[in-house]
Amino acid sequence: MFRMGLLSFCVLASLQAILNQPPSFGSKIETPIDSMMHTIAHMNFPMDLATGKIKLPQTIKNVVIDVGARESDYLERLELTNDEETAIFLFDPQPSSGVQLAERVAKFSLRGIENTWLDPLKSNQAFYTKAALGENEGITEFNVAWAPACSSLPAESDENDFWCAKSSRKITVTVLTLAGFLPLIDKKVVTTAQHGGNHNSTGVEQIHLKIDAEGADLMVLRGARDFLRMCDTVVIECQRDGGKSKRKSECVTKDAVAYMDTLGFKLYEVEGQGGLVNIFWVHPEYQGPVPEFLKGRVSFRKFYSAIDGWVAAKYSPVAKEMSKEYTLYSDGVYVVQ
Predict the structure, then answer these.
(1) CA distance linking residue 23 with residue 306, whole number of Å
(2) What's the half-sphere exposure (Cβ side, CA atoms, 13 Å) at 241?
(3) How do residues 68-81 score in pLDDT, each as one tens digit?
(4) Can you name the residues that pair with 271 across neighbouring β-strands?
(5) What global pTM score does this model have?
(6) CATH superfamily of this structure's domain 24-336
(7) Which of 83, 160, 251, 272 is the most interior residue, by most CB within 10 Å?
(8) Three-state SS at 9
(9) Closest Cα partner for 131 from 183, 94, 87?
């Protein structure tokens, strides 16, 4: 009995030692090997053991990350266009939307299947992960609201009077981070001329991030750490400054703008949406062009369609002064000067 206990202890100690060691096969894994994201990635995505990156088809140039996907108009756009240059990663912890997302991703991956063989391109373009994203990994309670679209990680605030955000029950969910996920994407390193020009690798060219996490948007951004700089555009939803709180510790416009300023992102627009706002950022070194995929039937196509002109003005020596600057007024509304 003592020997069995000692043996078990030794085995567990050996396993822990292995987990704590860096990969020994010459990999470039940046996501910790003992993280939840590392484990889930090897279950959900086609991983390259040598690089620690997701193996996407060679035709893929653009990655769209949809956090709080629900019905996901990005996935709908992919279903309609079969765009071979775009891959989509969907994250949503809710059972109500997860079942449908999983079914749609499966159908999309199986399109044009012959016999029992999956098409390497068609089956590796859309991925759904049943998990929330937040500031830190873990297992936590998720607040299911009266209306599923208003469900969130942050608990309902005491002053909430919006029926949609009223919590009806709690479920337990997995929470991952963008700091764990983004390093899994092999992205080309592209810099502007003043930083040495283009440095090419074999990865994707662009990453576009959309977050609609019902109050947890800033938590998701913070959970990306410095890896957020891998994203070319970022869209989130936040509470207006000074607005009545719906959830505890929810995203507020001024806090989100201040945080993104520390990472150097350029604020493009703050768009009112009832008591909420959609906030749009562009990476300071993004040179476009925006994929045609994003200019079609997606919620933020107006934003995506306007970026190329803004980038051209920003980088043109003649029209550099046309860059947009934003001022925060006392009522919490941003306007273009």
Answers:
(1) 43
(2) 16
(3) 999 999 999 999 99
(4) 278
(5) 0.82
(6) Vaccinia Virus protein VP39 (3.40.50.150)
(7) 251
(8) helix
(9) 94
